[in-house]
């Protein structure tokens, strides 16, 4: 039991935290989905604080990425090489999936101890109110679940082809951006040898999450996706042209990440924070909903090879920067996250007395 997909077997979910509402029939916000006021303030728009937009082909890309990761834990990338045609196909297929009748989507419902298929976000269990969202999680080929969604002979084929192609592109992009992040910190190929899978080992893992936020009758009292950090090394997110994503910055507040045409949002995950010994911080983020547009996003979580223990790079530690985190695999970290949610990173931290 050492893969990401095994990690939830020890923490099965209750069905009420898996099965989404039938949003099409909800004309007003049910009490089960009515959240009280947010805990943190919105950023003052007059500060003009904004997550940076970086041209991946530009000469300054590595430096700008380092600055963005230190300051925001997130940035948007243009010129990333993923064809806009593919992004449009992904959005089309994602909308096609979520437009299916509720009972048909449930044919591909996630089982309580698994993590692929259709359902609510894994973190639902940590909140007393439910989120205004539904998701579909893919690890590699979505074939089995897609056949359940579209039982007629050929209806699932385009969906599968597009999602497999998209994951291939996103994996290449994640590796490129990760390379730039490490280089920007002065780390060489040898320092990050763990990142290249050894011969015979399984390659690095990526998980694709399709998110749907249906039109909401009372968006100011609903929550699309509650504040969280991602467990990954990095997450690449496509949000089409509908706003909703926000990133939290200390002393500033929640900052909207407005869509830039064709751009992807890159979010630093917890495993990256560990690898960089806290130099880059994973970004706390959330998604809000609206009452006019059905918002779709796709998030690709990129993590280390399954048998690799991530630990802070020694080059980033010294007398003034003592090693902060214990070694951990992605699977072990997801286990910690499944039980301790946003406090998981603190559990991996050496306490001051043991340094
Ligand atoms: C690999 C994964 C990261 C993720 C859990 C998952 O198994 C697939 C879904 C991911 C997601 C998306 C919404 C927020 C989040 C915290 C959650 O509950 O499910 C993330 C998980 C994560 O990054 O820990
Ligand atoms: O929909 C969004 O903008 C955010 C999605 C997200 O944070 C996630 O899937 O982890
Ligand atoms: Fe996220």
From TrEMBL:
It comes from the Eukaryota. Its cofactor is L-ascorbate. Its EC number is 1.14.11.15. Pathway: Plant hormone biosynthesis; gibberellin biosynthesis; Hormone biosynthesis. GO terms for biological process: gibberellin biosynthetic process. Gene3D superfamilies: B-lactam Antibiotic, Isopenicillin N Synthase, Chain. InterPro entries: DIOX_N, IPNS-like_FE2OG_OXY, IPNS-like_sf, Iron_ascorbate_oxido_reductase, Oxoglu/Fe-dep_dioxygenase_dom. The keyword ATP-binding does not apply. Keywords: Dioxygenase, Iron, Metal-binding, Oxidoreductase. Residues 203-304 form the Fe2OG dioxygenase domain. PROSITE patterns: FE2OG_OXY (PS51471). It holds the Pfam family 2OG-FeII_Oxy. GO terms for molecular function: gibberellin 3-beta-dioxygenase activity; metal ion binding. Belongs to the iron/ascorbate-dependent oxidoreductase family. GA3OX subfamily. This is gibberellin 3beta-dioxygenase.
């Amino acid at each position: 039991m050492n893969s990401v997909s095994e990690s939830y077997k020890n923490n099965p979910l209750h069905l009420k935290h898996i099965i989404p509402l039938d949003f099409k029939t909800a004309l007003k916000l049910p009490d089960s989905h009515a959240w009280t006021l947010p805990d943190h303030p919105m950023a003052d728009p007059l500060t003009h604080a904004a997550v940076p937009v970086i041209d991946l082909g530009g000469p300054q890309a590595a430096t700008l990425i380092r600055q963005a990761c230190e300051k925001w834990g997130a940035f948007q990338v243009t010129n990333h090489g993923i064809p806009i045609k593919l992004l449009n196909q992904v959005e089309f297929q994602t909308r096609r999936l979520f437009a299916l009748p509720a009972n048909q989507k449930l044919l591909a419902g996630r089982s309580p101890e698994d993590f692929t298929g259709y359902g609510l976000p894994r973190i639902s269990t940590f909140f007393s109110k439910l989120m205004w969202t539904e998701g579909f999680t893919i690890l590699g080929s979505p074939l089995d679940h897609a056949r359940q969604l579209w039982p007629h002979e050929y209806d699932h084929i385009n969906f599968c082809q597009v999602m497999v192609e998209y994951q291939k592109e996103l994996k290449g992009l994640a590796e490129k951006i990760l390379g730039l992040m490490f280089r920007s910190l002065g780390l060489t190929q040898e320092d990050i040898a763990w990142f290249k899978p050894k011969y015979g080992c399984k390659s690095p893992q990526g998980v694709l999450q399709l998110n749907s936020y249906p039109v909401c009758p009372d968006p100011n009292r609903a929550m699309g996706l509650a504040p969280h950090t991602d467990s990954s090394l990095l997450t690449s997110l496509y949000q089409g042209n509908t706003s909703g994503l926000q990133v939290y910055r200390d002393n500033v507040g929640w900052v909207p990440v407005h869509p830039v045409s064709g751009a992807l949002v890159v979010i630093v995950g917890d495993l990256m924070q560990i690898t960089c010994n806290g130099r880059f911080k994973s970004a706390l983020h959330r998604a809000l909903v609206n009452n006019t547009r059905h918002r779709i996003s796709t998030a690709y979580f990129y993590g280390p090879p399954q048998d690799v223990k991530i630990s802070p790079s020694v080059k980033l530690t010294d007398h003034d920067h003592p090693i902060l985190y214990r070694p951990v695999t992605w699977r072990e970290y997801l286990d910690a996250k499944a039980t301790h949610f946003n406090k998981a990173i603190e559990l991996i931290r050496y306490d001051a007395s043991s340094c």
